[in-house]
Specification:
Strand order of the largest sheet: 3-2-1-4-5-6-7
Strand content: 5-15%
Number of strands: 7
CATH superfamily: NAD(P)-binding Rossmann-like Domain
Helix content: 40-55%
Shape: globular
Number of helices: 10
CATH class: Alpha Beta
Length: 262
């Protein structure tokens, strides 16, 4: 990766205090970037993306810092507020900071998705997410937990996020303004948010069997995903947008084969 494509740029990284966010922030700083880290604690900007108030606070605090060159919506995971943080918090971050990106000479944005997005999900919840109706989406899942599908609220949030990226990226507001927008769907990575998977050998074996990672092993390392996030949001990315790129050790390919190309 060209250091010149990163050095001197200003990056906003949500979820910067741990996991993939922390690994990404560290790589960017090591390559000469200025990083505005955002998280619940231990960050330049402290905000809770599970609430509308927290999202507005994040956008306001970052906006006060001036123009930015890239936004990396990494924050997610957790066992509660999954739809709120992983879908509505991510979209609010990207949309809220889009006007700042438009001032950059090489604006880039990326959001972290997951292989959990491959699980089927209730279209009613998906549509509520895409309509921006947070109350309806949360109410549907709370009333019927099975509406989230096999991967639950986390999986449906990531699935809706993938669909949002595909719809938003080629529009005048994003590609038309020169802003690349992509998603990186991570496999199972050794992070604090995934610790519950490794707390039980039974759970670990079940998750690995459901989403095998033949390249790189199980679990992956956050630094491996961070490398891709850095490139996608660097000035060297001049032609990639609207993509859901699976950084998952081959899990998506193993599960879906050539489904998309038949």
């Amino acid at each position: 990766m060209s250091v010149e494509g990163i050095a001197g740029r200003t990056y906003v990284v949500t979820g910067s205090a741990s996991g993939i966010g922390a690994a990404t922030a560290a790589l960017l700083r090591a390559r000469g970037a200025t990083v505005i880290g955002c998280d619940l604690d231990d960050a330049d900007v402290r905000a809770d993306l599970s609430t509308p108030e927290g999202r507005r606070s994040l956008v306001g605090q970052v906006s006060a810092a001036g123009a930015v060159d890239a936004v990396l919506a990494v924050a997610g995971g957790g066992r509660t507020g999954l739809l709120a943080t992983n879908y509505f918090g991510a979209v609010a971050t990207l949309e809220g900071l889009r006007p700042l990106l438009a001032r950059s000479q090489a604006p880039r944005a990326v959001v972290v998705s997951s292989t959990s997005s491959l699980a089927p999900a209730d279209e009613r919840v998906m549509q509520a997410c895409l309509d921006g109706d947070e109350a309806a989406a949360v109410a549907l899942v709370e009333a019927d937990p099975s509406a989230g599908g096999p991967a639950g609220a986390y999986g449906i949030a990531k699935r809706a996020l993938n669909r949002w990226v595909r719809r938003a990226a080629p529009t005048p507001e994003w590609a038309g303004a020169g802003i690349a927008l992509n998603a990186v769907a991570s496999g199972v990575v050794d992070t604090p948010a995934a610790a519950w998977i490794f707390a039980s050998e039974e759970v670990r074996a079940a998750v690995e069997a459901a989403a095998p990672q033949p390249f790189g092993g199980f679990p992956g390392r956050p630094e491996w995903v961070a490398e891709l996030l850095c490139w996608l949001t660097g000035a060297d990315n001049r032609f990639v947008t609207g993509q859901i790129i699976f950084a998952d050790g081959g899990a998506e390919a193993a599960l879906l084969g050539d489904l998309h190309w038949r």
